[in-house]
């Protein structure tokens, strides 16, 4: 356990910090047990084409069914797994489960769909990542072109390392997208040389788009940047009709958000999908 960066905070809250340190250790041992006992599940959220209204894919989002604390969102445990390295086995579990599910949906007669999976920094830098992913694809029978790996701008800050990893990933045939785009500091020069396929516009720009003119401008700027670089673009966190209208006006091709569906369990997604295609 390491002390907080802010020394004053550490000194003035020492008893509470001990409590925090204890919670952290507890959570860590729960995580190990959770991995052994497969207490994790994936929720799926659709990505929708704004021109045709069709579902182009889903994003897999991990949840933890904690035996005492209930269903925990990723924000409550992913950061700790990134610190202690458990993100590597957890991330591998997520990839395998997502690929298995995609294959199962195709076998059940759903049209082919993209499956997006988030990668963390540590996973991105993991030794032989591309080989590991390739063997998961082979084991699950999932066609590589349907797997989309989401990275963040911060993972591209060392552009030589990132280029190498991204080329290896592209070589196995998967798609790459940049998540939460616009919140980091990626250089446009790098963006041009990286083999990425898609930009996902961060939810914060979409949320304020209808109130704040500069956020609306961000959307059109990212959309035209994507078009010039020949990349696809998805808006995240879409909740209202007004946002949909503005996104269409700004030529944004794809969207994801509570407007269409919250992230839901696999069986619910399947019935949601079937119902939607019947009524469309
Ligand atoms: P993300 O990849 O940007 O995922 C989108 C997040 O926004 C999800 O939160 C989703 O529930 C939420 N969201 C989607 N549409 C809306 C909307 O219309 N309104 C609002 N308010 N929120 C919306 P979630 O599931 O809590 O995940 C949070 C973050 O945790 C993800 O952000 C991702 O960075 C990370 N994460 C999730 N699953 C994994 C995983 O398997 N591995 C790793 N490394 N990170 C993961
Ligand atoms: Mg994501
Ligand atoms: Mg993210
Ligand atoms: Mg995001």
TrEMBL record:
Domain of life here? Bacteria
Q: Boundaries of each EAL domain copy?
A: 24-277
Upper taxonomic lineage: Bacteria, Bacillati, Bacillota, Bacilli, Bacillales
Mapped onto the parent protein, the portion here is 428 to 707 of 707
Descriptive protein name: EAL domain-containing protein
């Amino acid at each position: 356990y390491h002390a907080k960066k802010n020394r004053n905070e550490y000194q003035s809250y020492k008893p509470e910090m001990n409590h925090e340190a204890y919670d952290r250790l507890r959570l860590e041992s729960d995580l190990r047990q959770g991995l052994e006992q497969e207490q994790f599940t994936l929720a799926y959220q659709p990505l929708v084409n704004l021109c045709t209204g069709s579902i182009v894919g889903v994003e897999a989002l991990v949840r933890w069914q904690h035996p005492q604390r209930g269903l925990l969102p990723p924000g409550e445990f992913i950061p700790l797994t990134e610190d202690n390295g458990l993100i590597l086995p957890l991330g591998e579990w997520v990839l395998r489960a997502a690929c298995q599910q995609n294959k199962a949906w195709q076998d059940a007669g759903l049209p082919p769909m993209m499956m997006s999976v988030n990668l963390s920094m540590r996973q991105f830098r993991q030794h032989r990542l591309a080989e590991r992913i390739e063997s998961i694809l082979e084991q699950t029978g999932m066609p590589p072109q349907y797997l989309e790996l989401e990275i963040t701008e911060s993972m591209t800050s060392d552009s030589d390392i990132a280029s190498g990893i991204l080329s290896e990933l592209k070589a196995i045939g998967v798609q790459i997208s940049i998540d939460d785009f616009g919140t980091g500091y990626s250089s446009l020069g790098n963006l041009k040389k990286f083999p990425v396929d898609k930009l996902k516009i961060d939810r914060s720009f979409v949320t304020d788009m209808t109130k704040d003119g500069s956020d609306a401008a961000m959307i059109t700027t990212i959309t035209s940047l994507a078009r010039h670089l020949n990349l696809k673009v998805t808006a995240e966190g879409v909740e209202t009709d007004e946002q949909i209208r503005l996104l269409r006006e700004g030529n944004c091709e794809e969207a994801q958000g509570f407007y269409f569906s919250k992230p839901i369990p696999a069986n619910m997604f399947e019935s949601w999908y079937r119902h939607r295609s019947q009524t469309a």
